[in-house]
Write a structure and sequence with these properties.
heterodimer; A: alpha/beta; Aspartate Aminotransferase, domain 1; Aspartate Aminotransferase, domain 2; seven-stranded mixed beta sheet; four-stranded antiparallel beta sheet; 15 helices; globular; B: alpha+beta; Sufe protein. Chain: A; three-stranded antiparallel beta sheet; disordered C terminus
C-alpha cells in the first residue's frame, strides 16, 4: 500500500496549528500523532499510579500497560528470546549505561574500544570517559569524502585487544546506512561485544537484531513519533545478567540491608527509581501507529521522497550536498555557497521551513568536512513534495536576500 | 520579511562581506579564543593596549553574518577607547542584545543590532565577540596572556 503523506499529516495536531509549516528536522525529533498524545493523557486521566508497587486496580493497569511495551519493542527489532528490553531516558542514557556497566564487566588496562568518526557525541564522550577510567585506548574507523566508513585498514583496528565495538547504524549527518554486519562479524571473531546506535535507523525501516547479530541495540522513542524522555536498550540477557547495575535506587534492588544490597532481575536491575511511565506507554501507541502504516511502506515512501529532494536541491545554484553514500536514509546535509548555515536557517524559518543548522552533535565530522556547521533537512512520513518545494523556494529567496543571485 | 530585513540591514551585510580589522596581531597584549558550542562558530580576538587605551583590536575566525558583523563593528567602536569605557560599552551592548534596551550614549553603529533580542537563539551570535573581548582582559587572562 502506498503511503499518502497528506492523509498521515491529518493525524498530527501540530500541523493543524501550523498549517504551512514544512517540518524538516525529523532526525532531531519527530512530531507526535494524536493517538500518542491521547495514550499519554489516558494514563494520567485514568490510571496514573506507580508501576510494580500498588496492590490496587489502577496500579495493576499502569504496570500492565508499561510492561506490555517491552514486547512491542522486542518485536519491532525481531528479537528472539535471548534478548531483553530496558527502558532508559534516551539513546544517550542507553549508551552511558553500557559505557558504565559493560565497561566494568569487560575492560581492563590496555584494552581497546572501537567506534567510528561518524558517531554522534553520545557515542563518543561516554567511551572517552570509560577509556580514561580503565586505561584503555579509543580507536576510530575513519570516514571518506563520500560519507562512508573507510574499512580498508579494519584489520589493524579490530584486534585481540578490542573488547567493545560501538557504531552508528545510520548517520545523522549524511544519512549513510552503514555496512554494520561486516564489522559485527570481525568484532565477534575477536570476542568483542557489539553495540549498534540505531537512533536514526529504527524509525525508518526494518532493523533485525538477530540478523545484524549485535549484542546491544540502542534508540530513542521521540525520533519515532513517541514522547520525549524514553529510550531503549535491547541487549542479550546473558550479558545483561553479568553486567553490574548502572544507577542505584528503588526498583533495581532485590534486598537492601544496612551493609549491602542484591540486585533485581534484568531488565529491572537497570531501571532505578520511578521510570518515565507515561512516556513508555505513549511509545507503545507510536509503535502500533507505525506498524499500522507498515515499516516496508515507510521505507518505500522515504526512498521516493529522498530522490525528489536530492533532485530538486541539486538544481539550487551554489548548493553542495555533503556526502554521497551508496545506501542512504532521508537525511540531507548541505551548504549554500556564501551563506552561513545559521543565517540560512533564519531565512528559511521566515518561509516556515524548519531545518537544523549546526554541527548536529558530530563535531569530528564537521572537522573532517572543514566546516563549522551544515544545514540538515531530514524527512519523515508526513513530509510531501510540497515541503521540498517550500524548502527550495526558501533557499532561492536566501540567495536573493544575500545578493548572491 | 520586514523584521528580518531590519535584522540583516545593509550595515550588517556590509560588515559581513567586508569585515574590518579582520586579521591577526602578532605581538598582542591580550588574546582570547571564543567558541559557540551551539553552532560551531569560533573567533579569536587580539588586543593591544597603550597607556590604558585600546590601540589595536582585531579578530579572525568563522561565523554567521550576525557574529561576524558584530565582531567587525565592535573592533571599530572600541579602538581608541579605554579599558573602562570598553567595559561599560560591553555591559550596554549586552543589555541591548538581550533586552532590546538602548542606553543613552550607546554609539549609533551598535544599535543596528538592537533587534536581535527578538531572536533568542541568535543573541549568542551577536555577543560572541564581545564576551571574548571582555574575557580576554580579565585578571586571570592578563596572567595567561603574559605567560603565553
Amino acid at each position: 500500500m502506498q503511503l499518502n503523506p497528506n492523509v498521515i499529516k491529518e493525524d498530527f495536531p501540530l500541523f493543524k496549528k501550523h498549517t504551512s509549516l514544512a517540518f524538516l528536522d525529523n532526525a532531531s525529533t519527530t512530531q507526535k500523532p494524536q493517538c500518542v498524545i491521547d495514550k499519554v493523557n489516558e494514563y494520567y486521566n485514568e490510571y496514573n499510579s506507580n508501576v510494580h508497587r500498588g496492590i490496587y486496580q489502577i496500579g495493576e493497569k499502569a504496570t500492565y500497560e508499561y510492561e506490555s511495551v517491552r514486547g512491542k519493542l522486542l518485536q519491532l527489532v525481531s528479537a528472539n528470546d535471548n534478548y531483553s528490553a530496558i527502558y532508559t531516558s534516551g539513546t544517550t542514557e542507553s549508551l552511558n549505561l553500557l559505557a558504565h556497566s559493560l565497561s566494568k564487566l569487560v575492560l581492563k588496562v590496555g584494552d581497546e574500544i572501537l567506534i567510528t568518526e561518524m558517531e554522534h557525541h553520545s557515542n563518543i564522550v561516554p567511551w572517552q570517559i570509560a577509556c580514561e577510567k580503565y586505561g584503555c585506548t579509543l580507536k576510530y574507523i575513519p570516514i571518506t569524502e563520500k560519507g562512508e566508513w573507510d574499512i580498508s585498514q579494519i584489520d589493524s583496528l579490530i584486534t585481540q585487544k578490542t573488547k567493545i565495538v560501538s557504531m552508528i547504524h545510520q548517520s545523522n549527518v549524511f544519512g549513510t546506512i552503514n555496512p554494520v554486519k561486516k564489522i559485527t562479524e570481525l568484532a565477534k571473531a575477536v570476542g568483542a561485544k557489539v553495540i549498534l546506535d540505531s537512533a536514526q535507523s529504527i524509525p525508518h525501516g526494518n532493523v533485525n537484531i538477530v540478523d545484524l547479530n549485535c549484542d546491544f541495540l540502542v534508540f530513542s522513542g521521540h525520533k519515532m513519533l513517541g514522547p520525549t524522555g524514553v529510550g531503549i536498550l535491547i541487549g542479550k540477557t546473558e550479558i545483561l545478567n553479568m553486567m553490574p547495575p548502572f544507577m542505584g535506587g528503588g526498583e533495581m534492588i532485590y534486598t537492601v540491608s544496612m551493609e549491602s544490597s542484591t540486585w533485581n532481575e534484568v531488565p529491572w536491575k537497570f531501571e532505578a527509581g520511578t521510570p518515565n511511565i507515561a512516556q513508555v506507554i505513549g511509545l507503545g501507541a507510536a509503535i502500533d501507529y507505525l506498524n499500522n502504516i507498515g515499516m516496508d511502506n515507510i521505507h518505500a515512501y522515504e526512498k521516493k521522497i529522498l530522490a525528489i529532494a536530492e533532485k530538486k536541491l541539486s538544481q539550487v545554484p551554489g548548493l553542495k550536498i555533503f556526502g554521497n553514500p551508496q545506501k542512504k536514509g532521508t537525511v540531507i546535509s548541505f551548504e549554500l555557497d556564501g551563506i552561513h548555515p545559521h543565517d540560512l536557517a533564519q531565512i528559511l524559518d521566515e518561509h516556515n521551513v524548519a531545518v537544523r543548522a549546526g554541527h548536529h552533535c558530530a563535531q569530528p565530522i564537521m572537522n573532517k568536512l572543514n566546516v563549522p556547521a551544515t544545514i540538515r533537512a531530514s524527512f519523515y512520513i508526513y513530509n510531501s513534495e510540497k515541503d521540498i518545494n517550500q524548502l527550495v523556494n526558501g533557499l532561492n529567496s536566501a540567495l536573493k536576500f544575500f545578493s548572491i543571485q | 520579511m520586514d523584521e528580518l530585513r531590519e535584522l540583516y540591514q545593509q550595515l550588517i551585510l556590509d560588515h559581513n562581506q567586508n569585515p574590518r580589522n579582520f586579521r591577526e596581531i602578532e605581538n598582542y597584549d591580550f588574546h582570547k579564543k571564543g567558541y559557540n558550542p551551539l553552532c560551531g562558530d569560533q573567533l579569536e580576538i587580539f588586543i593591544n593596549i597603550k597607556d590604558d587605551i585600546i590601540s589595536e583590536l582585531s579578530f579572525t575566525g568563522m561565523g554567521c553574518a550576525i557574529s561576524k558583523a558584530s565582531a567587525s563593528i565592535m573592533t571599530e567602536t572600541l579602538t581608541g577607547k579605554s579599558l573602562s569605557e570598553a567595559n561599560l560599552l560591553f555591559k550596554q551592548f549586552r543589555e541591548m542584545a538581550m533586552n532590546g534596551k538602548i542606553t543613552d550614549g550607546l554609539p549609533l553603529k551598535l544599535s543596528v543590532l538592537s533587534g536581535i533580542y527578538k531572536y533568542p537563539s541568535r543573541v549568542k551570535c551577536a555577543l560572541l565577540a564581545w564576551h571574548t573581548m571582555h574575557q580576554s582582559f580579565d585578571t586571570q587572562n592578563i596572567v595567561d596572556a603574559k605567560t603565553e
